Amino acid sequence: MAARSYGQYCGVTRAVELVGERWALLIIRDLLVGPRRYTDLKQGLPRIPTNILSTRLKELQEGGVVRRVPLARCGLVYELTPYGRALEPLMLELGRWGFQTMGEPAEGDIVTADSLTMALRTAFRADRAVGTCLDIELHVGDVALRARVRDGILSVAQLAPPAPPVGGALPGGEAEAVIVAGPGIRRLIGGEITAGEAIAQDIAAVVRGAEEALERFAILFRIERIAVP
Amino acid sequence: MAARSYGQYCGVTRAVELVGERWALLIIRDLLVGPRRYTDLKQGLPRIPTNILSTRLKELQEGGVVRRVPLARCGLVYELTPYGRALEPLMLELGRWGFQTMGEPAEGDIVTADSLTMALRTAFRADRAVGTCLDIELHVGDVALRARVRDGILSVAQLAPPAPPVGGALPGGEAEAVIVAGPGIRRLIGGEITAGEAIAQDIAAVVRGAEEALERFAILFRIERIAVP
DNA sequence: CCGGATCCGAATCGATACTG
DNA sequence: CAGTATCGATTCGGATCCGG
Known about the structure:
Two copies of one chain form a homodimer.
Chain A: H1 11-19, H2 24-33, H3 38-44, H4 50-62, E1 66-71, E2 75-80, H5 82-85, H6 88-99, H7 113-123, E3 134-140, E4 143-150, E5 153-160, E6 177-181, H8 185-189, H9 195-200, E7 204-208, H10 212-220
Parallel strand pairs in A: 3-6
Antiparallel strand pairs in A: 1-2, 3-4, 4-5, 6-7
Chain A binds a DNA duplex through residues 4, 22, 37-39, 42, 47-55, 75-76.
């Protein structure tokens, strides 16, 4: 049960022993979006065997990363401890790093609400958001999010699939635009194409509102290519 | 051979598929210090099975993280690609995060030259180094490093065990102080004790030079406790 | 439906031995 | 020095089952 030790006395080693087992970081990614029930996690990670999910949650609890909270409104949820939440900057860095070499989706690859939410957080450029607002619905596959940027702050709520009970509060009113995109949206975020090209190539469509909203999207959500040899 | 897929189209997932396998991040940690031969890596990771090291190096090459370079001076070395080196900030974050909950070393835990080097980089406070210099030898167990802070820049060279051929250049001259410490040095870096207390409790000793150097060490190398529930 | 526990074949890991 | 080969011990993955 205890994580197999690497036999070194070192911070990196300790970290990898805590969160380096298979699936652990993806569980944490989803929990960074909000507390989740066992079943929510299982649906957000469709390929995880249930016994592995169970084992990881126990290990993460033992490591002080996750905690199990009985909630009046909706039963039992898992949430990150403050120590676990301290992984957020690291997770964003990891997402940015991996984004560089994503390529095309493999057959069967899916996009979940939690992974898309974290992808938006990963790509969000607070430095460009000082004077720019945005309030859109973003649809990718079966997932629909409401993303709002205001006062330099990004907030994301999940519209579909029906958000877990403990999701973020939905903003009132209607979004200024509804964007429907495919996985190719990655190329827009990566700066390989412009908003206009994304529309022209059917990578994204603005089905309601002004197409100009997609241009603001491309400004606010952008991952710079560092170096790919 | 190909990393088992998690079935998601997401940056974090891609990253974990590239560097999330067992031992991979520790290999990268050591390579962040400098290029290493196969045998150097094996010595720096004493508990890694040789077939796993071999497999990981192949996978990391295939992922564009590591590259194999035949070097005139010393044969064959592995080094990080630019994409692999882009993991450095992430690795430092990981080290800082893990440091928080390190506790006492387990029986058999060792400290290697590369792990201690990365620990120093992890703990280094560039923000405090603008007006402060330091040039010490640091001995922990069998490991001896020469650490220099000058102009806000940290450089670390390995004195013992004999550095791999491709290590950093050794600075000329003598260090201003020689510090001998045990694993308890963690408590100094963590801010649990002062330099004076570290000496009084025999956690560290200044065997040559002024004891005041240890106070500067404690200022320049420090990991703040974030939140441990 | 929720929150797991159990069982079993397949793949991986770890330890040791061996080779060019 | 730089790995490959082998083999038992673990872990993972997939499916099923079960109590609430």
